[in-house]
Amino acid sequence: MIEIFQRELNKVIRSLESMNLSYAIIDSDNTIHGTLQIVQTGRKKRNKGLYEKGELKSYIYPFIKDMQEKEIIVIPYTKFERNILQRAVCAMANDLWGAGNYTSSMQEDGLQLHRFVIKTSFTTLI
User: Fold this and answer.
1) How many helices (H) and strands (E) does the chain have?
2) Residue 95's closest CA among 122, 123, 67?
3) CB burial class (10 A; 0-12, 13-18, 19+) of residue 34?
4) What's the Cα-to-Cα distance from 35 to each of 7, 17, 26, 125, rounded to whole Å?
5) The dihedral of CA 104, 71, 92, 78: what is its sign?
6) Of 8, 23, 38, 123, which is most buried by a Cβ count within 10 Å?
7) What is the spatial distance between Cα 15 and Cα 114, in angstroms, rounded to a whole number?
8) To 10 degrees, the CA torsion angle through 15, 18, 20, 23?
9) Are both 80 and 111 inside the same structural domain?
């Protein structure tokens, strides 16, 4: 370690110790200073989802791909958890038609999805 850095590090260590603080410092030479134990942190592993990758999409897409404006469909829950199915349907509907162009509602027999008629062109009144 460069001498000036070592001096500054020693000052910091003395200050921490004078305040009776616990600390752990790893310097540029990978030397550990202090009394705290350093825990190696790695990247968290993602939990495996409830369903296989793409399983929800392949189930939902045939129901909504050809939906027309003003149409209402019911997507059965089958083996999918209600809230997860609704989130996935809304994400796909948002991608296909945009935000605010559909609504969904959880019912006993399945998830109801209604596609709205939204006009995207505006007329200016003069």
Assistant:
1) 3, 5
2) 67
3) middle
4) 20, 10, 12, 74
5) positive
6) 23
7) 65
8) 30
9) yes
State whether 109 and 61 are in the same domain: yes
Distance in Å from the first CA to the final CA of the chain: 75
pLDDT tens digits along 41-91: 777 776 778 889 899 999 999 999 999 999 999 999 999 999 999 999 999
Exposure letters 72-97 (e unless 16+ CB within 10 A, then b): eeebebeebeeeebbebbbebbeeeb
Take residue 23 and report the two structure tokens written for it: 């600390």
pTM of the model: 0.57
Residue 81's domain comprises: 55-115
Pull the structure tokens for residue 12: 């910091």
What sign does the CA torsion over 67, 73, 78, 80 have? positive
Name which of 79, 72, 80 is nearest 112 in CA terms: 72
Pair 30, 59 in one domain: no
